[in-house]
Amino acid sequence: MSALQPQPALYPFIHGQQIRLKEACYINDEPHFTRRAIGEWLCAPHPYLYVKNIVDRNPHIKVFSTRLNLSLVEGGKTVTREVEVYSPIGLQLILMKSNLPKAIEYQIAVAHLVQAYMRGELKPPKRPGDIWLQLACEEASDLIFSRERGNAVRAITEKFNVHRATVYRWLKRIEQGENPSEKQWGIKLKGSFRYIGQETIDLMYELIIENPKITAREIIRRVPCVDCSAIGTVWKIKRQALKELGAE
């Protein structure tokens, strides 16, 4: 465990459908999670104490923790406290020592999270406000009655200063099982406009990683749901992929 470090920004962490912690921060571009957030995510009866007891019984987990000064909301007030936060590996070790039903259910998801962390794929969000907007939209999507949803949409537009159409578009993507904060690439298919999904972009990235010199037409030939009318967008995605890979 490292010495006390200065206070970073604290906001929710979302990775896929299962890993959703309310308090997270980034240290050297690596996500770390508070004890309280981990305990609440596991639905522990006393979240903070539950995780603290696991760590006290298993001191090797402290190797994957860091002490920080963080501003936390307690009893409706914001207070600054010294808090211990855990890296993805620390999170995985805590789950391995827990016998709560949620811990067992989430073990595979956290294994994938650790894999993404080791690959360097977990980066601080460029727009942290999008995380709060996504959570608000997910709450609105759970509302059944149109009047309740309409009131929720109105509240979201005022709180986040976004257009109504943006909120409804995010709601639609959430209902389709997509992450609304992920970038979408527009393409024309058979005369109509739609978006390339994240799975398709991932497939395109794999082809570009295998062969950085691959042409846009070859990508289109090997990815069935993209046709020749999208060649300009394919070039944009390829340039972005090469930039991220440091190959430009």
Q: How would you describe this protein?
A:
- The mean pLDDT is 82.
- This protein is of the alpha+beta class.
- The strands form two sheets. A six-stranded mixed beta sheet has the order 1-5-6-4-3-2. Strands 7-8 form a two-stranded antiparallel ribbon.
- Helix 5 packs across helix 7 (164-175).
- It is built from ten helices and eight strands.
- The longest helix is centred in the middle third of the chain and has 18 residues, at 101-118.
- The protein has three domains: 2-118, no CATH class; 129-175; 185-244, no CATH class.
Question: Summary?
Answer:
It contains ten helices and eight strands. It has 248 residues and is of the alpha+beta class.
Outline the fold blueprint.
Layout: E1 2-5, E2 11-15, E3 19-27, E4 30-34, H1 35-41, H2 47-57, E5 65-74, E6 77-86, H3 88-96, H4 101-118, H5 129-141, H6 146-160, H7 164-175, E7 185-189, E8 192-196, H8 198-210, H9 216-222, H10 231-244
Q: Quaternary state, please?
A: single chain
Helix vs. strand class: alpha+beta
If you compute it from the alpha carbons, what radius of gyration comes out, rounded to the nearest whole angstrom?
A: 21 Å
Q: How many DSSP H or I helices?
A: 10
Share of residues in strands: 15-25%
**First-to-last CA distance:** 38 Å
Query: Can you summarize the main beta sheet?
Result: 6 strands, mixed
The overall number of domains is 3
Strand order of the largest sheet: 1-5-6-4-3-2
Which stretches are poorly predicted, pLDDT < 50 over at least 5 residues?
none
